[in-house]
Amino acid sequence: MRRYYTRPCNFYYGFSAKKLIKKKKAFPLAGNQNIAFDQIEIFKRKKNRAAYGILYSINSIESLPKKIKSIVKKDIKVITSNRKKICELKFSKHHIMGVLNITPDSFSDGGLFFNKKKAYEQASFMIKNGATIIDVGGESTRPGSKVINFVDEWKRIKEVIIKIKKNFPNIPISLDTRKSHVMEKGKKIGVNIINDVSGLKFDKNSFDFIKLKNIPFVLHHMQGTPETMQKNPKYDDALLDIYDFFDEKIKFFLKKKIKRKNIIIDPGIGFGKNLQHNLRIISKISTFHSLGCPILIGTSRKRFIEHIVTKFDTQDRTGGTLASVLYGLSQGVQLFRVHNVKEIKQGILVFNKILNTN
After folding, report:
1. HSE toward the beta carbon, residue 101, CA cutoff 13 A
2. Residue ranges covered by each domain of the chain
3. CB of 139 within 8 A of CB of 103?
4. Can you tell me the distance from the alpha carbon of 68 to that of 91, in angstroms, rounded to the nearest whole number?
5. How many CA atoms lie within 13 A of 324 on its CB side?
6. Cβ contact 24:345 at 8 Å
7. pLDDT tens figures, 44-59
8. Catalytically active residues, by annotation
9. Which fold has domain 95-355?
């Protein structure tokens, strides 16, 4: 467990970012010249409570105490380094992962695309409207959901995946599953990325599959299981506890010869977190850049939005989803898992245009 953590902050965009980087007044974020930072926030781990950060300009790093300076310099080297491509996706720009739940009981769209024809049509619609990845799942992992048989899960998704790969061969398919049997079958028909919400803990064979096939995967954080995760979740500090989870897992994977370039991290908004946990993670999301992996967040339609807006809640929660996506975009998050692809793409295009106008 770390004692100090480094968060890049005070960001600049577009022409301003490039200008400051060129003058060495700011650092590029994750190798992206279109987003730069000139401040860092340093958190010091506190026992049994959330840590408060202290802001420093990048010019004051040399004046930090020797021990802290060493940690911060190592972190900045990782924070500024390029992220490797995954399935030909470059992380110098954002990517939208379209959610395709082929289930009768997912939390927001259960049953809508359980019909295979409708599922394919939805995938096609999302791709044509801005999704660069499709995340296909055949088992609900909403709070309180039950595990289903891997045979039934595979039957739900097989034909749809085959059809998507046939008609959109250049669109990566992410497979949302916790079961190694489903992962193996998916890989055989062209699945490109594994997205296991259990963090490869549900099925002991999942890790061996990931390693053997050298397949990119989403390292997702979840406290507990879908059945238990929302029953009074607790952390000393949700942000730093989850950082430590990723840090420990990534080090383990590297020792086992799994490459960092195959790892995408997802802090698991709503998976074993209450409102304050979710807000803590989202507001300080740029802390995870010092892990050296692309960051994915899935805030789409999540209940934390309802907890904030109360009487202004809507069925699709598009406004709340978009707000969280745009904030993530401003913090350098590279991937967004969403249901309403077209609306989110529209918001991102307008937001980016504003940010990058001189």
Report:
1. 18
2. 4-80, 95-355
3. yes
4. 29
5. 30
6. no
7. 998 888 888 999 999 9
8. 302, 337
9. TIM Barrel (3.20.20)
